Every structure is written in C-alpha cells, then in structure tokens.
Fold this protein.
Amino acid sequence: MINRILIRIKVVQMLYSYLLTRSDFKVITEPRSATADNKFAFAVYNDLLLVLLELTGHGTRPGARKSMLDVDKKLLKSAVGAALAGDDTVKALIATESTDIAQLRPSLQHLHDMITASAVYADYRKRRSPSLAEEVSMWLTVLETIVMRDTQFMETLRSVDGFTNMGLEAGIEMLIDTLNSYRDATDGYAAACNDLERSLSRAYDLYVACFTLIIELTREQERRIEQAKTKYTATPDELNPNLKFVNNRLVTALENNEQIQEFISKTPVNWATELSLVNSLLKAITDSQIYRDYMSSDGNDYVQDCDFWRDILRTVVFTSDDFLEVLEDKSVFWNDDLQIIGTFVLKTIRQSSKAYTVSKEDDTTIETVPEVIMLDKFKDEEDARFGGELFVKAVKHRKEYRALIDRFVNNDSWDPERIAFMDIIIMITAITEVVEFPNIPLPVTMNEYVEIANDYSSPKSGQFVNGILFNIVSALRADGKVFK
C-alpha cells in the first residue's frame, strides 16, 4: 500500500530536515568574552584543530607547499580529518594559518610517530573500515594518553604568546567537546532514521483511519436520527426516516473487518473526540447533491453503497479544510500523505465493489457482499526495506554526490551557492537511487524525482533537476558506474 512514490517523498523530506541541521562536528567560534584565559583557550583550541589536521594530511592550505610530515597511510584516510577540513570555519582557519602552528610543526613528526606506535592506534588499524565514531574514540584516547602527556609538545604549547594554565586546560576541553559533538550528530542520524520509519507507519495509520472516519460519520448520523424520534414535536419524516445512509453495507463490512477493529482498539486516532469535524463533514455530506441523489435513488445494492462513499470521500471529505486541519493536528506527516493515501482508500473500496456478485437460484436472488480486503502496508519485503536503505545510502554518499552535482552545475553556468537546498537533496537522493538500486529502471527514477521537484521545490525546479540529472547519469555511464 505504501508505494515507492510515497517512500521517495518521505526520504527526500527526512533527508532535507536532517542535512539542513546536521554537522559532523560542532566547531566552536571565538568567545565574546575577551579575557586572557578565553583568548588563550581559543588559540589552543585552534592550534589543536590544525595539529589534528596536519597529523591526518588535511592541514595544507590550498596552493601551499605540501607538508613535510610523513603521515601514516591509515591516517591519510581519516574520516575525522576529512570532516573537520570540510567545515567552513575550519577551512577559513586553514587558509589564514596562525603563526602558532609554525612553532608546533617541529614536534609533530615525533607526536605522529608516538601515535602510530601506540596500542590504541594498533587496534584502530585492525579495523578494515572503521566508523567515524570508532575513529573519534581513538582520537579522544590519543589526546588524553599521548598528546597531553608528551613533554615536548606541551612545552611548545606553553611557549605560545598569551599562555595561561586555565586557558591551556580550557582549550584542550574545547577540542574534546568538538570531538564528542559527533556523538550528538550520531543521535540525530538515528532519530532521522526512526522518524522515517515512524512516518511510513503513520502513513498506513492514515489509510486505516480514513475507514474508521466513515464508520464514525455513519454512526453519528444514526444517533441523530434516533434522537430526532424522541422529540416532542417530531415530524413524520423524523418518525419514519430514510435509513439508506446509516444502513450502507460498505459501512457494515468495515465494522466487521478485524483489521480495522484492531486498529481502533490500539491507536489513538479517535474521531468521536473530533465532534466539530464530524458535525462539519456531516453537514457538507448531507448538503451535497451526491447525498441527495443517493438517498432518493431506487437502487439498493453494495456497488451503489461503495460508489456513494468513493464519491463523498473524493469530493467532500478529502477536500475539506476542516479535515486537513485536524489531520495536521493529529500527525505532522498526514497532510502531505493524504493525496497518495487517499487514492489507496478509494482503490480499496473500488476493489471491494468489484468483488460483489448477484446470482439467481430458484427465482431467489442471492447477493454476495464481499469483505473489505485491506491493502498490505508494503507490497513486499523489498519495498519495506527500500526507504531505509535509500536514506542510509544517500547520507553515506552525500558529499560524493554533492560534488558531482556542483561539477555539472558549474558546467551549466549556475552558481552552486544559489541553488535551492531542496533541489540539491532531491538530486542527491535521485543519484543514490540510480547508482545503488540497479534493478529500478532509469526512466522511473528520473520521472519520479522530477515530479517531486515540481511539487516540493520551486516552479522551475523540475526542468533544472531533469537537466542536471541527465548530464550526471551520462557521466556515470561513461565511467562505468551505471549500466542501465
């Protein structure tokens, strides 16, 4: 039921939110309080950042002569060094290069050699593809057990202008805080993954909730009819009401559906508490021409009952501003989901209608009213995994694919800094799908993400995204990275 169109939209939305606020490391900016201790602490912090970058081969200024430091091959692959070097604040620090690093450089090879000879580094080297978290842990141990205990290096730091003991300790703590901040980013990543899964689950909840709303609307109308009979001045029509609406056989089938009843018992979606919405929708329904035609028609079969609710949902309920407002209150995900989920609700009713049969036996009409067969949450296990895998791989390759986008944007005379961030996210997700999911036909991927760009970004985004993606896919084919 939750198809790949909706999954793609959810992944793009979650990726946009996650990457908009995400940072591998929280680099500390210059303190407002200009005390001697604060000044020296910030200087030490910057010096230690540059030292870490030098030790991983990421500290050389653009256009400058390559560092003479003989860096271990494993350290050259440092994800920590690469992540820090990619931060805009750190880039500016590398470019300006404080004079302190010149004083520290003579002791760096000695420090490097001590690190690479240590037990903690030996354990780190054994890992074929260490995670960023594992490397952060290694650097925190190195900082405490090697850097801070190395007499030569610490004496050099103490010789820097403006030295204070409190500033030195605070500067080291600032670097520890920056390295530890990655764990916060890790928590954000886990939360984004959980939010994606929860969002997909809530989409299915909306699917079932649409059917429970039909039941609630019907039963509220039934309560009104019964109350009207007890009025002192009840009219003949109130005493003998038309029960076609409340006896709708689709509603009876929904009430007998075990899956729907289980949903009602386990989820907090209770339309009975939304009396204002129920009243508003019932008035809109009973005032509609669809309702009047239905109540006055001679036909009385299951197909007609199904057709009535399909028309009412499509033209009255799903277009109601009151309904959309309540959806937004119940779940932040539901307003965006309704367009797709609504089509599946209508499809379920239509399929149930098609299963209805009437036969004759010995001049007796035999009516077979089918069950309402609810759609499965996902078509198959592959679809169930698709969203999570797409999100994880998009995050993993985001820098690589962003660089690819920038390359072709520059070729097309666009300023990468002025491209809508949503367009960037859509293209990163699309490239991920093209490269990482070879079984999905290329036209399907291209068309879907162009449509997402048209719906969720600027008016010209679809055309722009289509052009850039076409060039990128052509390049990936030429490089042998895409074969479809």
About this structure: Residues 323 and 479 are 51 Å apart (CA to CA). The chain has three domains: 31-163, 193-368, 397-478.
